[in-house]
Design goal:
The chain is mainly α. It is 61% helix and 0% strand.
Length: 333
């Protein structure tokens, strides 16, 4: 018996009856030979970590555009925090930790530069619309490895596609990531807002603090413990009603005080104009797109979708540099 088969046997013996076993995966888009060391979800996680789209997350906005401090979250650090939350919950519930890690690490691979501002801009100008979860799946299926994709398992792709509030993952591991994404961004966005001086801890309504804690750390710990307690031994991932209600109130508070705050989000209008301008420029000059994108059009992909592929893959810094290169006059020397 090889190492992978031993690990698969350990999963069957140790994990919850509600866990997703590696040996029971529905499979990949293209059949391929199994690794003799790594089960399928571990292999997916490794492919994501080694992908170019994962590396680009380090220079993509989470909430604050081009912050001056070194300690504000980026899309990459957000992804790592989601992964850590999800792994903690999965381990406590005896679910497949490698599956939750693969989903968590891949869930935002298709996110735009400038966070949700970039997503709004592309959704507005592209006739096919734009959704970062669907783009993340498109990234792992089609765009990575110059059109070959990463050929991930169905379960990982499903978890990536359904990680938002509107999603309905088919595995409990996907449901864990869906919850973990919410509690991660609520936690770290408040932490960053306090760091930026936009909020103080005392601004958080007392009715929320008395239920889930009086610091960002206490609240994160409370969320995770509550999910584990409410879900243990059940075929579902749950949060208790009081904590769920407090989380919704905290999320509404964050929208009011941070996500729609002109001080925190005042630059987003500029970012949206930049993204829309780049989209229009390349839509009418597709010959300037990289060769792998031009090949997609040759295979029948709509040019509007391919231009979205190119723009959404940009980091903040690259998008700004491209805009300056194209539209800002250079000094004469």
């Amino acid at each position: 018996m090889n190492i992978r088969e031993n690990l698969e046997g350990w999963e069957a013996e140790y994990l919850s009856p509600y866990a997703t076993l590696s040996r029971n995966s529905i499979g990949r888009l293209r059949e391929e030979e199994q690794c003799d060391i790594r089960p399928v979800f571990q292999r997916d996680r490794d492919r994501i970590i080694h992908s170019k789209s994962f590396r680009r997350l380090k220079d993509k906005t989470q909430v604050f555009l081009t912050p001056l401090g070194d300690h504000y979250r980026t899309r990459l650090t957000h992804t790592l925090e989601v992964s850590q939350n999800a792994r903690t919950i999965a381990k406590a519930l005896h679910l497949n930790e490698e599956l939750v890690e693969a989903i968590a690490l891949g869930h935002d691979l298709g996110h735009t530069p400038f966070g949700h501002a970039g997503e709004r801009a592309l959704n507005r100008v592209c006739p096919y619309g734009f959704d970062h979860a669907e783009q993340s799946v498109r990234t792992v299926d089609l765009l990575e490895k110059e059109g070959q994709g990463l050929n991930l398992t169905f379960e990982v792709r499903d978890g990536i596609r359904n990680h938002q509030t509107k999603g309905h993952p088919v595995t409990l591991e996907g449901c864990v990531v869906r919850f973990s994404d919410k509690i991660a961004y609520i936690h770290h966005d408040m932490d960053d807002a306090i760091r930026a001086g936009i909020l103080t801890e005392e601004d958080v309504p007392e009715e929320i603090r008395e239920v889930i804690g009086r610091t960002t750390g206490e609240r994160l710990d409370h969320f995770i413990h509550d999910i584990v307690s409410a879900s243990e031994g059940k075929n579902g991932i749950f949060m208790s009603e009081p904590v769920q209600e407090a989380m919704q109130k905290l999320r509404s508070f964050m929208f009011q005080r941070v996500y729609q705050n002109p001080e925190a989000k005042g630059e987003e209008g500029k970012a949206e104009i930049l993204v829309e301008t780049l989209y229009d420029y390349y839509l009418h000059r597709t010959e300037l797109l990289p060769k792998e994108h031009r090949r997609l059009m040759e295979k029948g992909e709509p040019r509007e979708r391919v231009v979205c592929d190119y723009i959404s893959a940009m980091t903040d810094r690259f998008a700004i540099a491209k805009y300056e290169e194209i539209f800002i006059p250079k000094s004469w020397q």
